[in-house]
Design goal:
Chains A, B: Keywords: Isomerase. 2 copies of one chain form a homodimer. Helices cover 40% and strands 16% of the residues of chain A. A 7-stranded mixed sheet of chain A has the order 6-5-4-1-2-3-13, sandwiched between helices. The first copy, chain A, has a 3-stranded antiparallel sheet with strand order 7-8-9. A two-stranded antiparallel sheet of chain A has the order 10-11. Chains A and B meet through helix 1, helix 2, helix 5, helix 6 and strand 6 of A and helix 1, helix 2, helix 5, helix 6 and strand 6 of B.
C-alpha cells in the first residue's frame, strides 16, 4: 500500500554547509519534499568534514544530505550565479523556496530575487543576528553552559560535544519555511525569514527558565552528573556497569523506592533531614544522602539483576554504553530493533546504517532512509527540467567548469 | 504598522508537561497560534519544576508556557475528561489539533477522538518508541554522549546539562503538526503523528555521521575541550579570562593565523609534523602542537587586546562567561542589546526577561515576548466560547472542583 510522503510536491533549493541549514533540508527531504542542494563542483566547505569513511568520504556530509538531489554549480563564476538565481526563481507552484546559511547579499540578495519572484521564501541562517560567524562551540561559552557542565570539583569549564544549537536551528528553519509557505498559500506572497544560531540558543535559555534565573540574580552552579532540581545521578553496579537513575516525577521516585526496596529507608532519611522527598525540590536538596543509599544498593547488584527489576517497576533509568554497544545489543532494546534505522547503499562508501524521519505520520507510514546523493549527480537533470537547457548547453557549461555533472 | 503574526488563526490544544510538548506549543504560540494548555486544577507535573522565582513559582514553567492560554480541568474525573474531549473535537476550521506527551490511550485514544472528528491531528510525544518514559538524562547514556564529554584524562562519563533532545523533539513536534496541517488542507483528513524522544536522538546521531561511524567500527574518543575534526579549543588570556577559538573553515583558520601573527610559525610547524594545516583533518591531527603556540600567544595578551583584534580579523571566537555576565555586558555584544529579549510582567513573579521567537519573518515583523498565563486564567472563557457553556454551568463545574477558574 503506497501512501505519498507528507510533503511530497514541495520543492526547495538549498545553498548550505555544515549542520543547521543542511539538517533543515534533510528534514524537509525526509518528509517527502524535493530538496536540491547546490554545491561548488569540488564540494562545499563541509564536504570533507570528519568523521570520514575508509574511502575518505565524509560520513558527516552523507549523514546530513540524505534523500536530497545534488547539483554542482560554481557560484564563483557569473554564469554559475545566474544559473542558481534562475533555479531559485523558476516558476513552480510549490517551489521558490530558498534555504541557505550563505550571506543574503550579492547574488543571494533577497530584494533582487524577490523582484523577479515575489512568491520567493528565503530563509537565511546566520551565526549571530549581526551576521557574524558562530558555531555551537562559540555560542555555548557566551551562554555559560560550559561553566555548568563537567565534574563538580573541576574549576575548568567543560564544552559538551553535541552541536545542539545547530540541530535546533535546523529544525527552526523548517518551521520557518512551513509557516511562511502556509502564509504564502493564503496571500500569494513570499517573504524573507532570518534566523541566527545565537538567537535560537538565547531563546531556549529563556524557555528553560535559565535567562530569568540569571536576570533575577540567582547563580546556577555545576552539579556534575546530578540532574538539577529533582533526583538523578549515575551509579556503578556490582559488575562495574554504569547506570543513570532518574526520579524526576513522584511516580518515577516511588518506582525507584519500590524496585530497590529502599522506600522506607529513604522516607526515614527525609524525616531525619527535615525534608519531604515527595517534593522534587527536597529530593534535590537531599541528593547526596539519597545517592549514598542508592549507590550502596547498586554496588550490591549486577546489571542483569537490576535491568529487569527496574523495567518491571517502571523505573526511569538507562545504561551507559557506547553507540557501538547500543548497535551490538540484539535485544528488543537494541537500536537495530528500531525500524527508524535501515541500511542504505551510500555510493562510494558502501552499505551504511541510516535513520529515517523520527516523526511517524499515520497517513504516510514509515519511510525508509535514503542515501545521500553523489555530488553533482542531478546537475544535468535539474538544469534540463527546471531551466530547459539542452544537452549541448549543459555539456558546454560542464566543459567550462561552471557546472559538474557526475555520472 | 500592524502585521498579523505568521500562524494567526491556527488553534491548538496542548496536554503536556516538562519540555518537549510545552516547547512545541510555545513555538506555535509565539508564531501567532492560539495555544490552549490544559492542566489539572492544581497544576501539572512540571508546575513546580526548578528553577523557582522568589515567590516559589516556577521560572521553568513560566518560560515554557509563554504566550499560551491556560485552562484548568481535572481529567481524573469523567466530566473533566469529557470536557477535554469536547474541546479537542470542537468544530473549528483551523483547530482540532492536539499536541500531547500524555499516553494516547483512554480518553486520548486517537481512534475514539478521530471517530468524532476525522479532521483531528493528534501529535503524541513519548520517551521511547515503545511508549516508555525517557528523558535527556537517560537517552544520552544509551547513545554514548557522556563517554565523549568531559576532561580528556577523566575516565568517568560526563552528563551534559542542556536537555537538547527535548528541545529538538519539541521543534520536531511543530514540524509534524505543520506538515500534517498542510496535508489536511489538501485532503480534509487529519491523522495521528507519533514522535519518540529517543528516536529524535537516534536520528540526529545518524545525521551527524556518528551512527555510521560506530557501525563501521570506528571508536570516537573523548577530546576534552577540543573541537573534533578541525581546530578549536579554549585558552587563557593574560588577564585570566578564558576564550574559545575555532578554526573550522580555512577562512577562520587563516584569520586566526593573521590576527595572532602566528601564520608562518604555524605553517612551519605543519611542515615539521608532515601535515598540511590548510586541511581541517591535519589541523585536528596537529591540534596539540597548534594549541601550544596559541596558548603561549594568548597568555601574553589581555582580553581587551584580543577581543577587538579578533573581531577585526573575523576570527571565530567567544569569551567564556556566565549568563549573568552576558546580561550585564552593556556593549552591542551584550544580550540586552538583542531585540529578541524584552521584559514581560509575569503575574505573581513580576518583571521578567523573556525571549520571543528567533525566527524573524519580514511580513510579520519582530513580535515581542508575551508572559505565561496564570494557571486556569482562561478556563471560563474557553468553555464559554468553544463549548457554549453558560456562566451557571461553569460555576457549577468550578464548585465541584472539576475545573478551576483563576481571576
Amino acid at each position: 500500500m503506497f501512501a505519498p510522503n507528507t510533503l511530497t510536491g514541495l520543492s526547495i533549493i538549498e545553498l548550505s554547509a555544515f549542520v543547521a541549514a543542511p539538517l533543515g533540508g534533510l528534514t524537509l527531504a525526509q518528509l517527502g519534499a524535493d530538496v536540491i542542494r547546490i554545491d561548488p563542483p569540488r564540494g562545499g566547505l563541509d564536504y570533507h568534514r570528519w568523521p570520514l569513511a575508509s574511502d575518505g568520504s565524509s560520513l558527516f556530509w552523507q549523514g546530513l544530505n540524505k534523500a536530497k538531489r545534488s547539483a554542482a554549480i560554481d557560484t564563483a563564476t557569473p554564469e554559475g550565479r545566474e544559473l542558481v538565481q534562475a533555479l531559485i526563481v523558476a516558476p513552480e507552484d510549490n517551489g521558490n523556496i530558498l534555504l541557505t546559511n550563505f550571506p543574503a547579499r550579492g547574488f543571494l540578495l533577497y530584494e533582487t530575487l524577490a523582484a523577479q519572484c515575489p512568491r520567493l521564501i528565503q530563509l537565511t541562517i546566520t551565526g549571530d543576528r549581526l551576521g557574524r560567524s558562530a558555531v555551537d562551540y562559540t555560542v555555548n561559552p557566551r551562554l555559560g553552559f560550559p561553566g555548568l557542565t563537567g565534574p563538580q570539583n573541576d574549576e575548568q569549564p567543560c564544552n559538551h560535544v553535541l552541536p545542539a544549537w545547530d540541530l535546533i536551528t535546523g529544525h527552526l528553519a523548517v518551521i520557518g519555511i512551513l509557516a511562511a509557505e502556509r502564509s504564502r498559500r493564503a496571500s500569494g506572497q513570499g517573504q524573507s525569514v532570518a534566523l541566527a544560531l545565537e538567537d535560537a540558543a538565547l531563546a531556549m535559555s529563556s524557555h528553560l527558565g535559565l535567562l530569568a534565573e540569571a536576570q533575577l540574580g540567582m547563580q546556577r552552579q555545576k552539579y556534575g552528573n546530578y540532574l538539577y532540581g529533582a533526583f538523578g545521578r549515575d551509579f556503578l553496579t556490582a559488575d562495574q556497569e554504569r547506570i543513570m537513575v532518574v526520579g524526576l516525577t513522584l511516580k518515577q521516585w516511588r518506582a525507584l523506592g519500590q524496585a530497590t526496596g529502599l522506600q522506607s529507608e529513604l522516607d526515614a532519611l527525609a524525616t531525619e533531614l527535615g525534608l519531604n522527598f515527595s517534593q522534587e525540590g527536597d529530593r534535590f536538596r537531599g541528593r547526596e544522602a539519597i545517592a549514598e543509599r542508592i549507590a550502596e544498593w547498586c554496588a550490591r547488584h549486577s546489571l542483569t539483576y537490576i535491568g529487569p527489576l527496574f523495567e518491571q517497576h517502571g523505573v526511569c533509568w538507562s545504561r551507559y554504553q557506547s553507540l557501538q554497544q547500543g548497535l551490538q545489543d540484539s535485544s528488543p532494546d537494541g537500536f537495530m530493533a528500531n525500524p527508524l534505522l535501515s541500511m542504505v547503499i551510500q555510493p562510494g562508501a558502501g552499505p551504511q546504517l541510516a535513520a529515517g524521519m523520527p516523526l511517524q505520520f499515520s497517513a504516510a507510514g514509515q519511510q525508509a532512509a535514503r542515501a545521500a546523493p553523489v555530488l553533482g549527480s542531478s546537475t544535468a537533470e535539474i538544469l534540463s527540467t527546471m531551466l530547459g537547457l539542452t544537452d549541448a548547453q549543459i555539456g558546454a557549461l560542464a566543459q567550462r567548469g561552471i557546472i559538474m555533472c557526475a555520472a
